[in-house]
Amino acid sequence: MIYPELGETTNAAIEYRASYSNGFYLTTDLELKGRGITIIGDGSVHKRGKKTYRATKTAMDKLKKNHEVCYLASF
């Protein structure tokens, strides 16, 4: 877990935070696809050029098994 507001960074392949509805918001350079994963941003407006996805809890559990992930906390 890192706090971006404090200037902390990570080298994880996937950064994620909880969404207000159901699931998680992900930012990554990877091309993600599969059941429970929806692309919501192609990176053109992201400040670091990363793609943005929405993922269900089940999809996130599978991603955690295959990739290095980091939870982005905020106060």
Structure summary:
The protein is an alpha+beta fold and 75 residues long.
Figure out the total of helices. 1
Largest sheet strand order: 3-4-2-1-5
Shape: globular
Low-confidence runs of at least 5 consecutive residues: none
- Using the CA coordinates, give the radius of gyration: 12 Å
Q: Ends: how far apart? A: 12 Å
Main sheet attributes: strand count, strand direction, barrel closure = 5 strands, mixed
Write the H/E string, N to C. Answer: EEEEHE
Q: Mean pLDDT score, rounded?
A: 87
Kindly state the percentage of residues in helix: 10-25%
The count of strands amounts to: 5
Strand content: 25-35%
Q: How many structural domains?
A: 1
Query: Helix- and strand-based class?
Result: alpha+beta
Topology diagram in text:
Blueprint: E1 14-18, E2 24-28, E3 37-41, E4 51-55, H1 57-66, E5 69-71
Parallel strand pairs: 1-5
Antiparallel strand pairs: 1-2, 2-4, 3-4
Could you explain how this protein is built, in words?
This protein is α+β, with helices and mostly antiparallel strands and 75 residues long. The chain has one domain. The chain contains one helix and five strands. Strands 3-4-2-1-5 form a five-stranded mixed beta sheet, with helices on one face. Strand 1 and strand 2 (24-28) form a beta hairpin. The model has no long low-confidence stretch (mean pLDDT 87).
